[in-house]
User: What shape does this take?
Amino acid sequence: MARRAENTVNEMKCVFPAKSINEGLARLTVSSFIAQLDPPISVLSELKTAVSEAVTNCIVHAYRGAADKMKCPIYISATYTAGGILRIAVKDKGAGIADISLARTPLYTTDAEGERSGMGFTVMESFTDRVKIRSAPGKGTTVILEKRFDVK
Ligand SMILES: Nc1ncnc2c1ncn2[C@@H]1O[C@H](COP(=O)(O)OP(=O)(O)O)[C@@H](O)[C@H]1O
Ligand SMILES: [Mg+2]
Assistant: This one.
């Protein structure tokens, strides 16, 4: 009901296994959808980067150590409203996050190998208008990226 009241005009959903080869797929799928809003190239590029960060987190953190990645789904859904509000949800059914505000802290990472910068959520926040995180340990995480567009 809430969504109908906001007047959603288009929607896209996709699901793929948490394999690095699918990072490019996620970027292209989402950018094709966003292109309908006729964004400046810089905004498109920033949103692709934000989506990449969210998808990479599912691959490297949510399903860390999983033996069969084919059983590790990543769900992406995207909608936009008549008023120009774009929402992209990136969801996993992996490890979850125990302390969400700690996870959002710049430079915070649980990556022991030292390959990660701990700046993923900071990048998502700086390239969007709002980042919502819902998570439960052992159940999974949903990251919602919101961006407002000027509709002509
Ligand atoms: N989808 C997720 N599932 C489980 N943990 C996550 C997820 N996304 C982020 N995290 C946790 O939040 C931390 C911060 O994420 P981020 O800012 O992207 O930094 P980085 O990925 O470089 O560690 C990660 O180190 C991880 O502990
Ligand atoms: Mg990250």
Remarks:
- Residues 53, 57-58, 61-62, 92, 94-97, 103, 108-111, 116-121, 141 surround adenosine-5'-diphosphate (ligand 1) (CB under 6 Å).
- The chain has a mean pLDDT of 94.
- Strands lie at 8-17, 73-81, 85-92, 130-136, 140-148.
